[in-house]
């Protein structure tokens, strides 16, 4: 299945311009042991195709909002045959072509990206046999509520080359988060092949570099990363033991996120005769989300091209931001957007082409609404047009309108003060950041 931003248009249209909502969602991560039976039996009894169908039917039955699977190689079709999640990634192939990573979701997602590891190790675990790595997606959890989800399958084994490769893998994800999830809520869940109790493992990089919290450490281990080994049975009879599969997360300024539950789901994933389905215990977590109290955001419009940017980190440092001038640039398409705040801060995104139009706002006038229209250029969806409207009804526009438009209106008592999205010479994708007036 191919995901385009137009699907988002359809779902966004249903929500209209209601205020961002609160709610909860749950996630599951499971290494589904889908290497060909002749290569790796995984010490799991029974037929792998049959077991994979059972896993798919359990995914449907328990209806997790987002499932990340690893080692989803040669029995992928069996899982998808019995699973019924509406949004799923297409397989990248069996051994030796695919990464084994897939996602099954009740929520719409976009900007999906598969990234291969820069480093792998042949020392143990045959990690160079297939192009393993990680995946990125931006999930529309609710209107104006976006969370970046990462799946991963890091290098296995404990020989020196394995440890080096695995540390490089985790650092690669951490660096990608720094570049592509700036300002955003993030959930990383997958097979890290790492344990806190194995000091050579670099799993702490997600806390130290990205500010992520491990939901298991937080909720089951009272916030203390273990230093002593505690191996799990399969199925595990306790949540206290440590597995290499992890769920880590952080909130963002526009989306508050909190883990409310973490647990092994092993006893829900058994064969009819009671045997296990995978050599890994599947794990789950529940999260509650709330719109930010000092910043919120609109939905996105445009396509997943160019580089990620966000004014959110800077905005969190300002008190009472207010737009003093709006500048929009365009000709055939939308070239650039800029807002100057009353304190002098300027946020500018996109390129310098097109004709610039500037609207200076009065002290008691706020930027409250924006229309974006998108279109196709060289087969890529991007923004073609913007019209900014203030609380007194004055407007500034740029670019060329299309028939595919979206209006973002600040919640009552709020205003537009900045942007987030993806840009290059033009404004490929855009969302607006709101602050109280
Ligand atoms: C791993 O082994 C494969 C097959 O022998 C080889 O092509 C590859 O270069 C090796 N990779 C590393 C990092 O040693
Ligand atoms: C976790 O979320 C699921 C799905 O909403 C729900 O059925 C379950 O009761 C929740 N578990 C806990 C412990 O809150
Ligand atoms: C704007 O779009 C219309 C319809 O696609 C097109 O006919 C027109 O030439 C465009 N104008 C500019 C300035 O590109």
TrEMBL record:
CDD domains documented for this protein: Jacalin_EEP
Signal peptide: 1-20
Ranges for domain Jacalin-type lectin: 295-436
Pfam families, A to Z: Exo_endo_phos2 (PF22669), Jacalin (PF01419)
Assigned keywords, A-Z: Signal
Top-level taxon of the source organism: Eukaryota
Protein name: Jacalin-type lectin domain-containing protein
Native organism: Apiospora aurea
